[in-house]
Amino acid sequence: MADKATIVLFSHVSNTRSITGAEKLLLFFSRELSPYFNCILVAPQEGKLTRLARSYGLHVRLMPIPLVYGVYTPYAGLPADIRKLQEGREYHELCAWLAEVCPSFVITSTCVHALPPLAAKSLGIPVIWKISETITDNEFTPISVELIQSNSDEILAISQTAAACFPEDIREGKVAQLPPSWDDAEMMFGAWSKLRGERRSELKIAPGEPLIGYVSSFINKEKGLEHFVKMAVLVHQQHPAARYLVVGTPGDKSYYERCVRKVKLEGLTSRFRFVGYEECLPAAYCAMDLLVVPSLIREGFGMTALEGYAFSKPVVAYDSGGLREILDAAGCGDLLVPAGDIGALAERVNALLADQALAAGIGSQARERIEAVYGPAAYRARLQGLAERWHLRFCLNPPQIIGGPGGPPAAPAGGGPPAAEQPRERPGRRAARLRAAKLRRGRLRRAASRARAGARTGRKKRAAGSARRRASGGGKKRRAGQAAGRRSKRRRKAG
Question: Compositionally biased, Basic residues: which spans (predicted)?
């Protein structure tokens, strides 16, 4: 792949002060793809993701694109709402930019980032749709499934759980799986002991006090912090020396504050540390003795659990979506408990605290198993196969743009037969059309500018005239004075 083809990757978010699991995954994915392709990362705004991407040598483009949350939680009016978004300025600007760049293919991250695939397909550009969450299962789920499968050439699922919503024939013919991994360069293996000592000292955790961790990029109700606090109340009864570390930015401040108040009411303030966003996650994981993941939603994967195992920590978790896949791969399925069962969660934690040497051994063994299945070497082997296939399928014959910003999507939102393919243009004719369109836009902008300037001049003249009339007492008064003068003149003549 000496001459690398250009591809575009779309991120649905770019947070300013922290970075979510989805952003981490896309950044890692983009970096690992960069030896094979010239990658352009598109994000809605400047943020931590874009700054890191540039530091790794990736090209970045800022482009706000509306998200379609209804793809995650489908409803009857979803196709109509998508069609309205396709009429908007952002969608047309996206189409125009893609037509200009003409990438070999695009990759969109998460199911809610639906407009980039629709725009790409309307132009005849191949689409790989990356699904990292579990779409809500309801009566309208087929709408989302049809939207994704009709507007993609391949579907890249993060786990079996994320792919489960698609019918078997689609899974067999179009869906590939690429579980996430981690970057060994960021793990700081040689500094684990030092990081543990320093971070525990900062948190004022004594050597004999076990530290139980909770980690979430953005803390809201679905991430189960309140369950973690209630679990701590039960664990404290048997292991009063245990301490608790909560890492994460409050996504729902009222919920977060309620959890903090619960800790105070239970008299556990001295046992808890709420640290917010953690700049150095390796130090936080090294400081912990075990990790709890009490997620209440069907996780597409569960990156927090994978990170815990990468740092050799035993993990106790709710049986929520893709978390089962991770804990089963780690040989720790017995540390899964039914979602919402706080008592069972506390029991598993108490069992690990009762024999901390055994708990440490479980963490070390789990890391070896996880390394084999999800480690960087396994990830790169999977990705190399995918990249070679994509190169052969999409890059040897670059796409010919078949539509434009105003053209219909290749497959209508919500399913239905594909739109009729537009006649293909020769590259020279397409370039001439684009130049003409730019000239038209320039003339329109200049005309609009002149119209605005003329309107301002007219308003100024009218305002000046009004000011003169007011200064002279107004038109009616002036005319009345003139009539009185004429009558006076006539009387003088008559006299």
Answer: 429-449, 457-495
Q: What is the mean pLDDT of residues 287-305?
A: 94
Q: Is 14 helix (H, G, I), strand (E, B) or coil?
A: coil
pTM beyond 0.90: the answer is no
Closest CA to 8 of 44, 53, 60, 47: 60
pLDDT at 417 over 90: no
Contacting residues for 403 by C-beta, under 8 A, at least 6 apart: 95, 122, 123, 124, 422
Q: What is the mean pLDDT of residues 298-321?
A: 94
The answer on pLDDT for 429 being more than 70 is no
DSSP code per residue over 424-437: P--HHHHHHHHHHH
Q: Residue 199 pLDDT > 80, yes or no? A: yes
The domain over range 6-181+378-414 is classified in CATH as 3.40.50.2000 = yes
Confirm if 260 and 274 have CB atoms less than 8 A apart. yes
Q: Place 478 in a pLDDT band, splitting at 50, 70 and 90.
A: low
**How is residue 466 written in tokens?**
């009004």
What pLDDT digit, counting tens, does each position of 351-370 carry? Answer: 999 999 999 999 999 999 99
Count other Cβ atoms within 10 Å, centred on residue 158.
26
Given CA atoms 239, 243, 249, 254 in this order, what sign does their dihedral have?
positive
Domain at 184-373: CATH code = 3.40.50.2000
Within 13 Å of residue 134, how many CA atoms lie on the same side as its CB? Answer: 18
**β-strands 105-109, 6-10 pairing:** parallel
Give me the pLDDT at residue 206, please. 94
Token pair 């789990």 in the structure block, residue: 366
Q: How many CB atoms lie within 10 A of CB 417?
A: 8
Q: At what angle do helices 303-310 and 356-374 cross, to 10 degrees?
A: 110
- Is residue 78 classed exposed, middle or buried when 0-12, 13-18 and 19+ CB atoms within 10 A define those classes? buried
> Order of strands, edge to edge, in the sheet holding 38-43?
59-62, 38-43, 6-10, 105-109, 127-131, 154-157, 175-177
